[in-house]
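Posting for a labmate who doesn't have an account.
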Amino acid sequence: MDVLQLLPSNRNAAPARMAPLAKLPVFWALEGKRAVIAGGSDAAAWKAELLAACGAEVHVYAEALSDGFSILVAACTQPRAGRVIHHDASWSPQAFEGAAIAIADCEDDPAAAAFFDAARKAGVPVNVIDKPKYCQFQFGSIVNRSPVVVAISTDGAAPILAQAIRRRIETLLPPSLKSWAALALAIREKVNAHISPGAGRRVFWEGFVDRAFGPPPELGTEGDLLSTAGRLDAAAAVSAGRVTLVGAGPGDAELLTLKAVRALQAADVILFDDLVSDEVLELARREAKRLLVGKRGGRTSCRQEDINAMMIALAKAGKHVVRLKSGDPMIFGRAGEEIACLEREGIAVDIVPGITSASAMAARLGVSLTHRDHAQAVRFVTGHSRLGHLPTNLDWQHLAEPRTTTVFYMGGRTAGQIQSRLLAAGMDSQTPAVVVSAVTRSKETRWVGTLDGLAEAVDHIGVDSPVLIGVGQVFSQARYTSAAAVPAGSAFFHAS
């Protein structure tokens, strides 16, 4: 059997074509190029400073400069660092000769139109500040870790949104990234001389990237990296693949860890479960092959043996395989079987934990699973065995203890049995209980009530989506609903 052709899926196709773009993002080399700026305002000064920072020779045409602009002109006098040269006159068509870019701050539309037309006639890309119809290009909001540069544009629709996105990215990219990027630039040719193109070189740079998000490089880091490159056996790197078990969380892509995103971006092949959301898969490396190996209770599923065989075959072919599992791979994800199988074959395995569904459910309900007034322990219990039935070896007397919080995973189809077993073990019928289906997803549905209504609630909700059942006194604190807490399209109801 060809282990690469197990379960067809419309999500197993080649990456989709690029979606429409409002503007083409371009990073433009301006070092040593002539740039023209018309106007002496603070807004024009900011554009002049930006161009000078790129190494351009900026020619400013203005009869008067703002105080800030005058300071900038005085500071930017070094040819190699980007100069700002003031011409005490208005611009003329001759100003565009040899220019690579032209920017103006104009008081009115006629002045903007004149500058725009003159620049276009000279074949120079032009931008008139705050006048979109006289702009051939736009400036984005910038995150500067040069040589790493990130620019954000909303096509002029919401500049404040671009600024908010920039602030969020700033928190994700440590300032030390600037030093690591400069180091990469310095050693790239030397590394390429040591390692031939292919998997070996990629292994080196993936290791480099992992370090780049940590502390800044130290004095001897460059030597250490080059030594590593010198020792790296490219042939061994090609033949030795690896597997990373990655927790995709309950569905909301924003709940992925940064390490999980980096693993998805480094993957050659992604074997993903049926419950992994499209939003999570969108964060994967575009070139990675995606294969659905769905496993769902009560449905046709890919056999675990086939998944194991697929991981082994791909890793032995030198691929970096990401086994992407819903929730946390170490909780009811059969990770133990996969790890043991891979280790028997001598294949390296890494594990990236994810947010498990019980934690997501607790957050959605505003409940502490170990609230000290109500519980001294929390248990995660599977709601079905390998055969799809309620496990026969559960200690129901223990599960019925009143000072414990219990969360049943995959218990939708056995909810009635769970209810009856807990009641038979002596649990109070009025013990608070909750049911959450499709937690963190657009169709999330919640029920809050008591144990005696559990089976009826699950019947009402259905079992088409993954169901979590929570039982214990902590759920007396479950909030009913709030506009901020419930995603669009979700539902919430509680026992009357």
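Reply:
Got it, the structure tokens are right above this. Residues 124 and 482 are 54 Å apart (CA to CA).
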